[in-house]
Structure prediction request, 1460 residues.
Amino acid sequence: MKAILYSQRNEGPVPRRPTGLCAVSVAEHRCGPAHPPRSRRGKERRNSSGEWQEEGVRGRWPPKAAPAAMPSSALWAVDLFGRVFTLSTAGQHWEPCRDAQLEFKRVSAARDCCWGIACDHQVYVLVGASDVPIRCQEEAYENQRWNPVGGFCETLLPSDRWPWSDVSGLQHRPLDGVALPSLHWEWESDWYVDENFGGEPTEKGGWTYAIDFPAAYTRDKKWNSCVRRRRWIRYRRYKSQDAWAKIPSEDDPQQLPDPFSDLSVGGWEVTDEPVGRLSVWAVTLQGKVWYRENVSHHNPEGSSWSLVDTPGEAVQISCGPHDLLWVTLWEGQALVREGINRNNPKGSSWSTVEPPTSENGILHVSTGVCVVWAVTKDRKVWFRRGVNSHNPCGTSWIEMFGEMMMVNVGLNDQVWGIGCVDRALYFRQGVTQSELSGKTWKVIVAGREGDRSLSGSSFSLHSAGCFFGNEVRGSAESCGPGDTDASWEVPGPASSPAGLRGKESWKGPSHATANFPEATDLSSLRLLPLGLEEPDSADCHALWAWVSGGGCAVEAHTTLKWFTTQSGLCPSVQTLSLSITPAQTAAWRKQIFQQLTERTKRELENFQHYEQAVEQSVWVKTGALQWWCDWKPHKWMDVHVALEQLTGHDGAQDSILFIYYVVHEEKKYIHVFLNEVTALVPVFSEAKHSFALYTPERTRQRWPVRLAAATEQDMSDWLTLLNLSCCESRRMHGRPSPQAIWSVTCKGDIFVSEPSPDLEGPERRLPCDQMFWRQIGGHLRVVEANSRGVVWGIGYDHTAWVYTGGYGGGCFQGLASSTSNVFTQWDVKFVHIYENQRWNPVTGYTSRGLPTDRYMWSDATGLQECTKASTKPPSLQWTWVSDWFVDFSVPGGTDPEGWQYASDFPASYHKYKTMKDFVRRRCWARKCKLVTTGPWLEVTSVALRDVSIIPESPGAHGSGLNIALWAISDKGDVLCRLGVSELNPEGFCWMHVGTDQPFTSVSIGTCYQVWAVARDGSAFYRSSVSPSRPNGDCWYHIPPPPKQRLKQVSVGHTSVFALDENGNLWYRQGVTPSHPQGDSWEHVSNNVRHVSVGPLDQVWVIADKVQGSHSLSRGTVCRRTGVQSLEPKGQGWDYGIGGGWDHLSIRASATRAPRSSSQKPASKQNGQPPSVAGGPWQTPGPVCC
Amino acid sequence: MTDDKDVLRDVWFGRIPTCFTLYQDEITEREAEPYYLLLPRVSYLTLVTDKVKKHFQKVMRQEDISEIWFEYEGTPLKWHYPIGLLFDLLASSSALPWNITVHFKSFPEKDLLHCPSKDVIEAHFMSCVKEADALKHKSQVINEMQKKDHKQLWMGLQNDRFDQFWAINRKLMEYPAEENGFRYIPFRIYQTTTERPFIQKLFRPVSTDGQLHTLGDLLKEVCPSAVAPEDGEKKNQVMIHGIEPMLETPLQWLSEHLSYPDNFLHISIIPQPTD
Prediction:
């Protein structure tokens, strides 16, 4: 098989952009095949000076500063002057919104965007800035028919499709007729031909052949191929990110314009198809309700407004994250939308809810997932009891304390409000799933950036009060400064929370509110006499008009810094940034470290021969645990344990763990030398707090010593103590070395092993099962490391994390944990159960199965009964954070109610019911969350699926260079990280690398060879990646092994290994510096779950079905043996720790064993890749220039 | 990167090389050889000198032996002060090893407390720990501990077992997440130049405006004479565990990391050596 240059070859009259400046010749790099290179599609261009530039990407190269991306979680608010501000959950200052030109009345935020109504009554959407662009593929098909005269030509039969059409052929689609949907989009490149046909490269020109339209197309032209077609693609990109983009209104020119007056976004939990779908609802001044169609991540503006009939005149609307939609009517009642579901996000009908009291109608409502809050016309705040999906109207109103202008329910049903008198922003404290109404209102006193300058020009209490007051409450006859002062002193915005204030003071003294018209001419305000202005801006606080928490995630473990003003940073306050930790670098700390070292030297160096005053003693800790006995029938039995610790004079510690048990009334014991223990693994299953203890022998048996404690604290104490003793006896302290081997178990626990120098030695290798693994706090699915100490992880919820250099956390407290650098970490995953039904002729599908059938509520295999009530979170560390919901995203698709059909259990399921289907099932999912601690910090902005950091051989590269890091986003975008270094392991920003389909895996080798795997199972090689050109040049398509779909790739120094979906491990044959794509795949092994190739081309895998003397294990760490320069595929496997391991990274381990004399300098032979273990590196690696 | 945890280890394993010589007037049967020992800085003299006692008793007549006491350059050494404090305060400028004179006669009743058994040291140590926790947590942490935890603290010190001691002691070093530190910092400031044994006052780790107090703040407040004026010459050394932390060091951090096992910061103020 030969790699085909994945490129455009221009055939026919195709408009083509002048490409001279961007066609970086592949030949220059001596690695391209003979085909002419296609112009690099997309955004890359060279400027006039020949420098390479990336267009439209936020990151500069070299990066100068971190881009100020929209905070991932922020509260949005509008002040009385229409200025929009955001307050990050991590910050304590309001940031003004970018587009300062526009003034807004209303905003409604979601996670990634914010919709608003500006003072011009137009609707705008602001899509948050992201390193990953929003890009959409447009496609068109060119169809041709063969005729005996001219061969294939555009002349089709009259009955045929259009010569240029969509995929179905029904729609005419000429290339120049495909237009951009709005001004906010731009084309990324010109049209080009897609030469990838289902993972296989096509012949020249991308043509696929068939007997007739419409039919099955093949790559090969046959004698009966009468028609052919090819696919043209072109990308458009949303260019108005981080700016307010105007949404055109649907005014009928026949009628008077009806401007929008309120708007609300939500509904993202109704369905995630398409990705990022949102419900956007709006209300006009005439009281009509509109719904914005087709708003999603890839179509942030939506397509059109459609009118939704209402039984009354609407004034305000609120759409919750799920299926709640409430509208307030002019008359004071509320309308509740019924029938909103994933198939009908607009809902079907309205029902009416009466206000709490007949004299005061509802002024404002706000909905969450299962709460509704309202404000009535007398400014009282109400909580609606009993609201949920099944009963969107709820049951009754409860009056809450405080008086508010408005309230807003955000993520997790958290609530914010704007105080009625002081116009301050309040956060409802204590809102939890069990106590949705919360406890108290707490005022947010976060400062605003540049408060001083803002107030200098136009900030005036008098004007603000007059200007936006909705009702006449007092007379405006006395508006002197003294009066305004009084009205502010009494409520005391920062001193006492609203909830504590009496009603009398809420009404306020002679508060200067007049009924000014709602005009927005702010310039007039500036004409007010200077005397009215607040003299000291530090004392005045912002006056708010609107707040939206739809993008603001406040959870139990979030610590908010909104409620105190802090001047100056405390030196010991841990700042959440890795690159700058002032506390770490403080001079006083350095001095203490240094002086202690000097003191020890001074007082001990010359006196080592002195006797110690305190004789070392044996220390024994005893306790009662349970032990999973070694013999059948296996069961938990009560045992006494004793840990004996002996410390020698040199400080070396030796410990023995004794386990005393009684069998047949005979007292027996087993013992374990802790210096032989290779791993201590917590096992939180079966509602028992237990852990497994491995030794080399136990590893070979696949049968660890399992011990359980009565309480979590007890288990944590024992685990910490045993871990400390193990580390002590191996003299291991502090953080892992940069060269460490990192791994993750299927439970998300993180383990790290120090590579000994003889780990990869040519002779007397350290057997894999003798490696010592110690646990590091945190919870991850993927961990990848680099020998310069940069370590990244990805959680189950795709959150990216960067290692902080600490250790401990999780259940390791006290001495086993570093003081700084340990932070809160969390992860989210879903538990799935299946509802099974069988058809019978009388009642149709019911939950009454045959006696031989599986459980009607079961796991995926059907063997275990799993009901909604009995199914527990995966372990005691996890807690439920949602209710059960139907999972529609199962492979194979479902019908509208989530069912999948089959002829019988167990069988292959399909999404439509046919005559032969007698059973059906559907998948229910429930979200659970774990909160722990560990030496990890979140890398915000983009969720990841895979990550790869360049492995480096020591001294092979200048250590001053940035560290190349590539990743795949959860949506399949290929990204490379800019600015990653030892000092800034988090890097600065992402650079997006365009692809024609979503990718799943990526790996970068020591010489910047980037390989990736696409969703269709084929591999891609990225050419010309280098430090000066971090994102490379273009993709080369590399077909997968025959009839296999690849799922992972790993590139070491010269070796490329890939893994397919059936667990086969493949080696790429024929990779050379001049031909980096190689020739063919060679099979190496089966039963492999994950592969990691290191900087010395060492090959480590996680393997399944490893036979031990006691049991068979899945997920075992294995090293490939016999890997030599002439035999890079190796010979066999050396089995290490397992099972239950899921992921491993050997890519930091670049320590070569000292070269033995018997080792032949193999690399000298005819330009072969250099030797792997111990050989001299005289020839440069492939692709290295 | 060095971690703060390493400081605890360094502090715990601090040793002072010491040479014990018998007082010349003591009556011996034969000549008493000096005895050399590495004394743990964090421990107490009478707790770690069993070997010394045995060594000198061998050369003495039984009837001449009464309670042992120690003296350095004429100053009787208080056993109830940690060893490191005694050394810093009295001998830090002299050459190593530290020459201590051993006495068995004429117990200086007005200078020293009697130490008839280890139980007395334990009682003294535990009362210090309790006093410190009263200052730090209104005694809440120490009172919630079980008897065996108290015992483990003491046994950890007595047997020089860092792990055993800190497994419990870490609980005494915690503070609520919403606070910026302890309620009050347990500290004692010693000066050789004054008659007063030590200074101890209530001092919070954080100022009213949220700033962390530093060692300098503490000294300015409770012992202004120790701090050199802005432009003046440095007259004193401020020493803890044989080192001179910068005056900018946050007091809370010092309390967590440089406290003695009795949970007090013992700060010595000694005249700057002239050479």
About this structure: Chain A touches chain B through 53 residues (CB under 8 Å). The helical segments of chain A are 451-458, 461-468, 481-489, 503-507, 582-585, 587-604, 696-701, 712-729. Residues 587-604 of chain A form the longest helix (18 residues).
